[in-house]
Amino acid sequence: MAEVTALSERIAEQRVGGGDPREMLGEFRRALVLVPLEGGGLWTAKFGGVRWVCGFTDEAALARFAQTRDSLREAGPSWEFAELRGARLLDEIIPAMEVPAGVAMNIADADGSMFFPPVVGIVPDTVAVGREAAEGPEVVSEHGGGRDR
Questions:
Q1: In sequence order, what are the beta bridge partners of 4?
Q2: I need a surface site. Which of 2, 52, 54, 57 has the fewest CB within 10 A?
């Protein structure tokens, strides 16, 4: 899983104030992300009005997280998880959730976690939080009924 190692490196660069956020996002989109399964769906957490899909760069990071969660710890050493491309999470799964949602990576690792929030440039514009404020109000033109911004 060399691509996961690259993602971990990009996250580490960002956490110390270096690196290019666009490169990290690109690496995330290309990476295979492990997402625990529970009750027939992806394991998520709700925080700050956002539903977070919890993803992990490798099985060791997932294991550290599982030790903090009763439902996963009870499953023993064989947690069920899905292996998904980051792009699929952002472009397909997040929009299908129909609530503000993002991806929280490696959340059991205080020095290795990273959040991909539901904002323009990360998730599709149609499901980004705050897109209305960023676009500005719609004004209906008096000339022909078209929409101006």
A1: none
A2: 2
Rg (CA), the chain: 18
In the chain, the amino acid numbered 137 is P
- The DSSP secondary-structure symbol of 123 reads B
Query: In angstroms, rounded to a whole number, what is the distance separating the alpha carbons of residues 66 and 76?
Result: 9
Reduced to 3 states (helix: H, G, I; strand: E, B; else coil), residue 23 is helix
* Confidence (pTM): 0.80
pLDDT digits (tens, 9 = 90+) for 64-85: 888 887 655 565 556 789 999 9
Give CA–CA dist 83/101, Å, rounded: 19
Q: For residue 15, how many other CB atoms are within 10 A of its CB?
A: 14
Rounding to the nearest 10 degrees, give the CA dihedral for residues 83, 86, 88, 90: 130
Residue whose tokens read 């295979």: 32
Q: Which residues of 76-95 are buried (b: 16+ CB within 10 A; e: fewer)?
A: eeebebbebbbeebbeebbe
